[in-house]
Amino acid sequence: MFALVDCNNFYASCERVFRPDLIGKPIVVLSNNDGCVIARSNETKALNIPMGAPAYQFQEIFTKNNVTVFSTNFALYGDMSSRVMSILSTFCNDIEIYSIDEAFLQYDGFELFSLEDIGKKIKQTIYKSTGIPVSVGFAKTKALAKAANKIAKKFPDKTGGVYIIDTEAKREKALKWLNVEDVWGIGHQHAKRLEYHNVKTAFDFIQMSDAWVKKNMSIIGLRLKRELEGNRTLEIEESKAKKTIATTRSFDKNYTTFDQLKERVMTFSVTCAEKLRKQKCCCNAVMVFVHTNFFREDLPQYSRNIVVKLPYSTNSSIEIARFAAIGLVKIFKAGYQYKKAGVVVMDIVPDMPNQLNIFENSNPKHKDLMKAVDKINRDLGQDKVKLAAQSLDRKWKMKQESRSPRYSTKLSEIILVKA
Amino acid sequence: MTQFGNSKTFDLYSALEGSNLDLPYIESGIMAGFPSPAEDFLDLSIDLNQELIRNPSSTFYARVKGDSMNDAGISDGDLLIIDKSLETTNGKIAVCFIDGEFTVKRIKIEKDCCWLVPANTDFNPIKVTEENDFLIWGIVIYVIKSL
Known about the structure:
Helix content of chain B: under 10%
Radius of gyration of chain B: 23 Å
Shape of chain B: elongated
Largest interface: A-B, 20 and 34 residues
Number of strands of chain B: 7
Structural class of chain A: alpha+beta
Distance between the termini of chain A: 48 Å
Low-confidence stretches of chain A: none
Distance between the termini of chain B: 40 Å
Number of strands of chain A: 13
Number of helices of chain B: 1
Radius of gyration of chain A: 24 Å
Strand order of the largest sheet of chain B: 1-2-7-3-4-5-6
Helix content of chain A: 40-55%
Oligomer: heterodimer
Strand content of chain A: 15-25%
Strand content of chain B: 25-35%
């Protein structure tokens, strides 16, 4: 059996731990730069404020309904997530941290135990220790555990936040209830196509022939079908390094010149390189993209990306920034107002002695240099040492007008208690 | 393990990974001359994180504002170490959330109600009733004060 443990409205719940006055009240959390809604409490969902709602369009609705608005506070969410995950790992050795707020646990050989009790205990322990509410779904396969979790979350009164699909009847009932677009791994595009074929629920989906599924949704779709049929095809995945690392930001205002964009792209490259070094990896390709503001239909639009294949694998800030700059030169076009840019490092491999390229190689001196830079930046604070191509006086500021304090990671921002 | 003459063996503690306390670190490198005999023992240091914090996942910090707990050794400006995972029992000092704010008080549980008892005669106990918006947020396990 697998369990999927998923935090309920995770970002909103993190905010509530330190703002108990907001329990039972509508909350939204906005994306970077306060762009759009990325998390909602149940009360907000009940107000029909959709996911992705642009903040500026919904300002009035927020005010009218007393919705408390938060900018993202990833220091807080990251810390709360690691607390939840480390508690989960005390319950079960085989754990796959699937995202910031969900994890699969493998419960094989627990036939003599009550999974219901285990689920309840997980839920209680995490809530008591961190204040974060979770839902737990158990089933024979990962895809069904996902479905079980959805049921647990949707019907908290009936399930107590724990639901187990352990019979054929329950499986069928769950699949008939589950909309096909909510099935784990079925994206928006596939859902649209399936709906065209009159497939509305997960149950409808598994009635499609294997051949059709494989043809239209590849082997991945077929595996998913097997999983929903109750045949285990997916296992717990060892925590592995990410396949791509992206650093992208919307700008606080529109940028028009190459130099402005270059400074941003250099900084994003450095951030990506730092992340690579943190997980002891190198990349073999760098993608750079830029685009204008799609919401400004009155302005000329432009959007372009380029993948720069590197001659050798590297995690040096200097080298990645240099290749990103080459990419930017190729895609930059004057005369547009740019709103967003990003750097994505791809084709990530472990940082091991590289295969030598006969003509060109990563500068071996960079390794020690980067080590020193990382240490200085860690000790003295972020970005004390920068590349010259990153502006020195510029303090990149994200628009974060309503970020809550970093209650759990900064001593100067911890809660105040009255005595 | 090194032994000096007949003196007793030294206990060596391994460094806690992920702790924020820096352990002294000496880069040996390749040097000529006599190596420092102390080098083998540099990891004998006290890590307060490890000593004071039993449940890192449920431990949080808070700053005290006010004097109502002075006689319990909790004063204005002190730093509280709070463990959310501990059960509330009679007589424990807890951080509570009552009617919109955090407060630290001693918990006194009676048959059908609960009291928040200050440790300062200038303050009155607070009776918690169903009308209060109330929750016990965590149990105070240590107070750190600057002298």
